[in-house]
Design a protein that fits this description.
globular; 52% helix; 3-stranded antiparallel sheet; alpha+beta; Glutaredoxin
């Protein structure tokens, strides 16, 4: 079922798929194939390279590349003429995602989504990257320039291209074999604490961002398992530094814009070192793991902040990600009606309209200004404690806590009246298992 050439609406083979991500691309003018024998057979019969695009439904830059390139008739014509275009949902096929991510990282030193990989007809990668823009910018070639270069190389020097693919696959295989040998020589479970956890904790403490918590600069991901390892190391060894590093990370993430201060839950990552500007998609696996690590920190320290974050994150799973048949959806989108973060950001005037006399107190606590902190609007964060706000407004801390909770409820009610991000309703067993484990442990 090739793409239709009549009318504005195209329909390609992805219309027969069940993945929400693939269905998002079912009306692109690109003649997409799902991964399978049909695409590989056509590539071999026509001696064409495969263009493999891997992404997921909540991915903002996947949507951007679709709008810029895959919905563009001229780009689609070039893809359809010179390549066999294949779309893969990484959440449906984590095996393919892992294989080709290894290849892209080996070629470029980095990875991400959308993943864009060029393959020989037998599936061997020879060139790749992630997002390519529709026009040359920030040192990146345009996507059509990439298509031109790959097609030229394939046409004029196919043997060299195939050799490059063979060598890349051999290098990845060698790396995998070496990793397997190292795994076989590792100590058994009874010895792992002394052999691995102590050095790991020391390394995490050395690489820690002391100003903002977490690790790395940007993009900055909430590393639940690293924090969990530090908490367990503290319990086992009494190391106060491990607990301090874990708490600093948990505190700064909870205060940042990566945390949804109204509806609960966390975005997938922040685009800045201070956790202010999220990449707004919310993933089930992130929130399940974060709920569990905040729960463990609450159990260990008794800090009420961690208890509150645990409850609101689990409530987010229950309210926003539960599907009609009782499973948990995979994610919520970063975009609303094509605009990144539109559901979540605020203008100060709207907050004053909703909260009236309570607006100054809320603004002081959550960093709301007329200028905004991102593209003229405000991403809510927590910039002052209840105690600081109490001193500023002549109130008791418990009065501040009550007033802020009521204000958040009113703003959440207003936000629910806005257009909402799409959900990817597919139920992934492993991710559902993480959510069930967090809920069971918190019960």
């Amino acid at each position: 079922m090739p793409a239709s050439s009549e009318g504005a609406l195209h329909t390609n083979r992805l219309a027969a798929e069940t993945s929400p991500y693939l269905l998002q691309h079912a009306h692109n003018p690109v003649d997409w194939y799902p991964w399978g024998a049909e695409a590989l057979t056509r590539a071999r019969e026509e001696a064409k390279p495969i263009f493999l695009s891997i992404g997921y439904a909540a991915c903002h830059w996947c949507h951007v590349m679709e709008r810029e390139s895959f919905e563009d008739p001229a780009t689609a014509e070039q893809l359809n003429r010179d390549f066999v275009p294949v779309k893969v949902d990484r959440e449906e096929r984590p095996d393919l995602d892992a294989v080709y991510m290894d290849a892209v990282q080996a070629m470029t030193g980095q990875g991400g989504w959308p993943m864009s990989v060029f393959l020989t007809p037998d599936g061997r990668p020879f060139y790749g990257g992630t997002y390519f823009p529709d026009e040359r910018r920030h040192g990146m070639p345009s996507f059509r320039e990439v298509l031109d270069a790959v097609q030229r190389a394939w046409t004029t020097d196919r043997a060299a291209v195939e050799t490059a693919g063979d060598r890349l696959v051999e290098a990845i295989d060698a790396s995998a074999r070496a990793a397997a040998v190292n795994a076989e020589s590792a100590p058994g479970p009874r010895d792992v604490s002394a052999w691995m956890l102590d050095p790991a904790a020391a390394e995490l403490e050395r690489g820690f961002d002391q100003a903002n918590g977490g690790w790395g600069r940007a993009p900055k991901f909430p590393q639940s398992m690293a924090i969990e390892a530090l908490l367990r190391h503290h319990v086992r060894s009494g190391d106060a530094r491990s607990l301090a590093v874990a708490r600093r990370s948990l505190d700064r993430m909870a205060a940042g814009g990566i945390h949804d201060h109204l509806g609960g839950g966390f975005a997938r990552y922040a685009t800045d070192p201070a956790w202010l500007v999220p990449h707004f998609e919310k993933m089930l696996y992130d929130n399940a793991q974060l709920a569990r690590v905040y729960l463990h920190a609450w159990q260990l320290t008794g800090d009420p902040l961690y208890g509150d974050v645990t409850r609101t994150t689990l409530d987010y799973l229950r309210v926003n990600l539960t599907t009609p048949d009782g499973a948990f959806a995979a994610s919520e989108d970063a975009d609303t009606e094509g605009v990144e973060g539109a559901t979540y950001v605020w203008r100060a005037a709207e907050i004053r309209e909703v909260l009236e006399e309570d607006a100054p107190l809320f603004a002081a606590a959550h960093g709301v200004t007329d200028e905004g902190n991102w593209e003229g609007v405000t991403i809510l964060q927590r910039v002052r404690s209840d105690g600081e706000i109490a001193g500023r407004f002549g109130l008791r801390p418990e009065e501040v806590a009550t007033a802020l909770a009521e204000a958040r409820d009113r703003l959440l009610e207003r936000r629910r009246g806005r257009p909402q991000p799409a959900r990817d309703l597919k139920a992934l067993a492993a991710w559902n298992g993480l959510a069930i484990a967090a809920l069971a442990e918190a019960a």
